[in-house]
Design goal:
Chain lengths: ~350, ~500
């Protein structure tokens, strides 16, 4: 595969042709996350499949700016190896599902890696986006600088929107220097005690970049200057991390605890005491992968009572917000989507559907 | 009162409804009292509002919005009025909705490390309230003793420490937003992300155009145990600028990295005697924080880079008092410059760091061509320039010259790949320069987003995004075949 191909005009044309023909458009990157939207396929009207995977290349990268701009189809692997060459990385650590993934897909799905509470989410790193909207217009939001408040921030809004505002052509991302050292610790603890430790450590200035409890073990990742990491390791105690692939496995959702059906991805206030059993607890408590033994309604009620929310991590995951949004937020979201794509052309089956909207 | 009897009846009706909805001290109709609200930090622009409401509760905010919506009254949200782009400039036929009476810290949650605060709480008051727990709120605009957290959200404000700790958008996890219809949109909360679109990110920096912020949940961070501030003088502005990029390229992200040029140094020194070297062409102020060993290691590396770029005698401040003294000159720089010229005009463009030296030199040449002086004091680490254009409003033509120079400077920022505003917002001040940064379709998309929240354009009308017709008149925009995109949309 060539690594520098500009297909922006081809893609814009394809969207304009779909618009003229009144067709829907389903956007795909490399297809690594198709399992997150697969459940939607039957529900939707026939759609033209538009692949961004050939629109590739790093458009601009000057390491001293801490910013990289890449075409949406650029493979995460390619981008991350270029960054690594300059001693930098993507702070939001996007998962590589099935080993793959593109830059556009990583932003559209908005899944952030294990360091999210300390290093920021996908949206925190997004500085600019070039996008084709439902009218086939090529738009540029944000830019390539860290601080920019000119106009509404329509770039960060694309993170986690699953392409329902438009087709992303290129993204500018903030990058960071790779920490000098990284070290993993593990402590054998029951889940409630693990949560208490997470709470206590979060209040102290420690170089923590990951806190995950799974199957009786609290995994701690420390990153930073060697002396700071060594001191923190002493304070935290425990043993050396026995599994060298634990943190990348967690990032790529490849851990055995995350396989199989019935899994929910939940987001909670980190100190929320429940749900805890049947969970893999990530982000020091704020992200919990839960395999509940209850029906959906009870699960949603339990999450709401705990001050959080969640969705099954299956083919319906990309149905952003369906069923979980308050009526007002759903109405505003629908209007916002229509502002970009009045015909619901892009990924029409994703996000709250109009019939649900009108019920309120 | 206006000449139109129907309008007079409408106005009387609105006033009486507001009187019923608000405590007596929360509705200001007296012209002298209203005058306090006629301008914000951009004092060159003034307008006397028709009414001012200062609600004490969210319920009152909602009621005021419903009344205004029902009677087509424009609403201008206002925090502390320190904004520098005229974002809170009133509408003559509208209501200023001031949030200053809603200034309670509602909750400090030490388990989840967040604080829930009302919009009128001052930025610094949050850090002060949690200091006893070893915590703080990171974004620290220079105006932090005065500006409100609601205003910070509306402007996505930054501060000296945002290079390492991020802007408001990175440190606010929840917002309650009152819509123009008087309903509450709850976005985020104590959770790191919401279930739907990231509307929270959209609200950041939206300049009061999409809704009124009635509560903010901020993230609290543990205070770093170690801190060093160093001052490096340079005989050459370009060398100082290049050192900035070199520090970052070295893999160090300082807590703060600020630059001042000779006019700014001299003004600050004359004002607060911070001990800055008055003969330097530029100084860099660099703050490093973290745990002990880390700070020492970074300090050694930064010093090496600075030496390699020709820095003079580097001073390192270890005690909190010495550090405060080094920062004092930087923090007092704006008022200090205010003492050396009758007026100054503060710009706010951001550029990729690689262009710092070149852009500073070109700003100098532009200033000369306009017959004005410029002092530079700015957030060098993230390329956010604050050229202060010195002028005298009493000299005929100087204000116009200053504005013209400002516009050229911002165009220059856009030309090198930057932006017209890094942290002060567009307000009414930068509407024209927005036409240079964005094309018609992109601006039209922004108007469509605004309409999704506020279809009749009642919230803060005429701010943040220029009308396309305005851009077309300026000639800064290409309008194909006389057709604007989104022809069906009203132009606000
Ligand atoms: C000396 C000085 C130094 C400064 N330094 C910095 C700096 O370092 N970094 C920086 O970023 N800024 C700086 N500023 C600019 C200013 O302080 C910030 O923009 C600040 O966030 C404005 O807050 P405020 O409460 O004064 O808002 P205001 O000026 O009252 O309003 C600003 C905008 O926010 C809207 N708004 C206010 N409150 C609400 C609300 N509750 N809901 C919805 N919209 C609202 C208004 O409509 C307006 O558009 C400085 C200003 C001064 C005067």
């Amino acid at each position: 595969m060539r690594d520098d191909v500009d297909q922006a005009e081809v893609l814009c044309d394809a969207v304009r042709r779909a618009a003229a023909a009144g067709e829907a458009v389903r956007i795909v990157g490399s297809g690594s996350k198709s399992s997150l939207t697969a459940g939607a396929a039957e529900a939707s009207r026939p759609a033209r499949l538009l692949s961004v995977s050939e629109h590739v290349g790093i458009v601009d990268y000057r390491p001293e700016e801490l910013v990289v701009t890449a075409r949406a189809g650029t493979r995460l692997k390619t981008l991350e190896s270029v960054l690594a060459g300059a001693g930098q990385y993507l702070p939001f650590e996007p998962p590589r599902l099935h080993g793959g993934g593109t830059v556009g897909g990583a932003v559209a799905c908005g899944l952030s890696g294990p360091g999210r509470p300390w290093r920021g989410a996908v949206r925190d790193a997004v500085l600019g986006v070039e996008l084709v909207n439902g009218r086939g217009e090529r738009l540029r939001f944000g830019g390539q600088v860290m601080k920019n408040v000119a106009g509404y921030d329509l770039s960060r809004l694309q993170a986690g929107a699953f392409g329902t505002f438009g087709l992303m052509l290129a993204v500018s991302l903030k990058v960071l220097p790779v920490p000098e050292t990284e070290q993993g610790r593990v402590l054998a603890l029951p889940p409630a005690d693990a949560l208490a430790r997470c709470r206590a450590w979060s209040r102290r200035p420690l170089p923590i970049s990951g806190l995950c409890w799974a199957d009786g073990l609290l995994h701690v990742r420390l990153s930073g200057a060697a002396s700071a990491v060594a001191a923190a390791a002493g304070e935290i105690g425990g043993d050396d991390e026995p599994d060298p692939r634990f943190w990348t496995g967690l990032r790529d959702l490849r851990l055995p605890q995350l396989a199989g059906p019935g899994l929910w991805r939940c987001v909670l206030p980190p100190a929320a005491p429940e749900p805890l059993d049947e969970c893999l607890v990530n982000w020091g408590g704020a992200e919990r992968w839960w395999r509940p033994r209850a029906d959906d309604a009870r699960v949603r009620a339990a999450l709401a009572a705990a001050g959080g929310h969640g969705r099954p991590f299956d083919g319906s995951f990309g149905h952003r917000g369906a069923g979980t949004l308050a009526p007002l937020e759903r109405r505003v979201s629908e209007r916002l989507r229509a502002a970009f794509d009045p015909e619901r052309r892009f990924n029409p089956e994703l996000t709250a559907r109009p019939e649900e909207t009108h019920a309120h | 009162m206006t000449a139109d009897p129907a309008d007079n009846r409408r106005r009387r009706r609105v006033e009486s409804l507001l009187r019923r909805a608000l405590p007596p001290s929360s509705l200001i109709t007296d012209p002298r009292a209203r005058k306090t609200f006629e301008t914000d930090g951009l004092t060159a622009i003034r307008e006397l509002p028709w009414l001012v409401a200062l609600p004490e509760t969210e319920a009152q905010v909602l009621e005021v919005l419903r009344i205004c919506r029902a009677h087509d009254v424009p609403v201008v949200p206002r925090g502390a009025g320190t904004g520098l782009s005229g974002g809170a400039r009133p509408s003559a036929d509208g209501l200023v909705l001031g949030l200053s009476k809603m200034a309670e810290i509602v909750e400090v949650d030490l388990d989840n490390l967040v604080a829930r605060v009302q919009p009128g709480v001052r930025n610094l008051a949050i850090s002060e309230a949690v200091a006893e727990h070893g915590l703080y709120y990171a974004p620290d605009p220079s105006s932090q003793i005065a500006c409100s957290i609601g205003g910070n959200v509306a402007e996505n404000s930054g501060g000296v420490h945002c290079l390492k700790y991020g802007l408001t958008v990175h440190n606010v996890v929840g917002v309650r937003l009152a819509t123009v219809d008087g309903e509450v949109l709850e976005l985020g909360g104590k959770v790191p992300e919401g279930p739907g679109y990231d509307l929270l990110a959209l609200v950041m920096g939206s300049e009061g155009m999409l809704g009124v912020v009635t509560e903010v949940t901020v993230r609290l961070l543990p205070s770093p145990p170690e801190k060093r501030v160093l001052l490096a003088p340079f005989a050459d502005v370009g060398a100082a600028a290049d050192a900035v990029g070199a520090i970052i390229a070295e893999g160090i992200v300082p807590a703060g990295l600020e630059m001042m040029d000779a006019p700014a140094i001299r003004a600050a020194e004359a004002f607060v005697h911070a001990g800055y070297p008055s003969d330097a062409a530029a100084i860099l102020l660099c703050e490093l924080d973290g745990v002990a060993g880390e700070v020492a290691a970074d300090l050694a590396r930064v010093t090496r880079v600075l030496d390699a770029h020709g820095a003079g005698d580097i001073r390192v401040a270890e005690s909190p008092e010495d550090q405060a003294r080094l920062w004092l000159g930087r923090k007092a720089a704006f008022p200090a410059v205010g003492r050396i010229a009758p007026d100054y005009y503060c710009m706010d463009g951001t550029i990729p760091r690689a262009h710092l030296a070149d852009v500073l030199e070109r700003i100098g040449r532009l200033a000369e061509a306009h017959g004005l002086a410029v002092a530079n004091v700015f957030h060098a680490g993230d390329g956010n320039l604050h050229p202060l254009i010195l002028y005298d409003a009493n000299q005929p033509g100087q204000l116009e010259q200053a504005e013209a120079l400002g516009a050229r400077i911002l165009e220059l920022c856009v030309a090198v790949g930057g932006t017209v505003t890094g942290e002060h917002g567009v307000g009414v001040e930068k509407l024209d320069t927005m036409c240079h940064q964005f094309d018609a379709a992109t601006l039209a998309q922004m108007h469509a987003v605004k309409a999704a929240f506020d279809p009749d354009g009642l919230l803060n009308p005429g701010k943040a995004v220029p009308e396309l017709a305005r851009c077309a008149e300026l000639g800064g925009m290409h309008v194909h075949g006389g057709r604007l995109p989104f022809p069906h949309l009203p132009r606000f």
